[in-house]
Amino acid sequence: MTTNEVTKKNRNLILVLLFLGWSLGNLDRYIMNYAVVSITGDLNLDASSTGIILSSFFLGYAIMQIPGGWLADKFGAKKILLFSVIMWSIFTGLTAIAWSLVAMIIIRFLFGIGEGGFQPSSSKIIATVFPREERGRAMSIMLSSGGIVSLIVPLLAAYLLGTIGWRTMFVVIGAIGAIIAFLYWKYIKLPQDEAVGNSDSKENSSTKVNFKELFKTPLMWNLIIAYFCIYAVNWGLVSWIPTYLQKNRGLDLMSIGWAQTIPAITTIIGVYGSGYIIDKLPQGKDKVLGAISCAAIGILLYLMFTAESVTMFIGYQTIVSLFIAFVITLLPAIVLKKLPSSITGSAMGIVNTGGQLAGFVTPMAIGFMVDAFNGSFDAAFWMLIGFAIICIIALLTLNDQKGTLLNS
Asked: Where is the Major facilitator superfamily (MFS) profile domain positioned along the sequence (predicted)?
């Protein structure tokens, strides 16, 4: 069975199951940004320690991106997918027993290691079972899980933290992961040639790529930089906005939850709509539109932290979420469309390393900045604006005609 022989029904089933997995991964990451408010109180931590906790997951996640992608290409995406879900479920549950800052950092780091192979292996599955012209839409559906979860999490977190507490909450999330792992084992069926990590399809057999060649391709380095910058902005906002709104704008958790539903809805619409737009854009126009989006992000970030009211802040955040959604959807779509599916896992692992390193660096850096400037977030917002500018340059200088990998 080759890619073309995977029925539409099977493709849709795989897409639904992958969506559930992406949703669970996003749930844990987003809900930690709210749980950390209670965790810091229980463990008596300052802003710098909070930033380290939020960043420790991303360090493990980033470290595992390239090995996870290579393993998915070498041994089959389904095996790595199952391993990732099982491992992250175990360490999500173990988060509940953390008794100190050091214990929390170690558990969250190992959780990141466990989940690290999920994104490249699931991206490879999309490239394996979906034709090239449908991959942008499929990826946008995966990425829309982040927006949906961010819509649910604020209110869900406020309820769970107020009823069962953060420790029991993480046990429940870990149990859900075990269920999803079983569904993957039973229902995800891939083409036989993918199972051995060496597809015989026309697309893959026409281009044999050495892993090291990926690092010699200018496209890859532009994507790594762009990934780092846009995810620095994204995770910088996502990880610290709950704390910012509580400490600098005077909102309680429930009010924050309701306020964050608005940009969350925008993110869902933005990501899902972006997939359709990207699939129809002429070659070369996608990076221009991406650069324009980054410019808008920089302007809106400035308007956010200078906003005179919470209403204006949420309004600007809502609009910036739309542009971030487009860029975050565009970057993996470039990988899926420009590179052969035989090395999609490795390529996605490499470029996503940039994004996850940003997830590691940014929350921690913001924590140190907030402490250094006596609780002010102004320097942190300027840092995020700088990342938006660098992302513009990375996209505008992206040349997908360079390198032998792109002639497949």
From this structure: 14-403
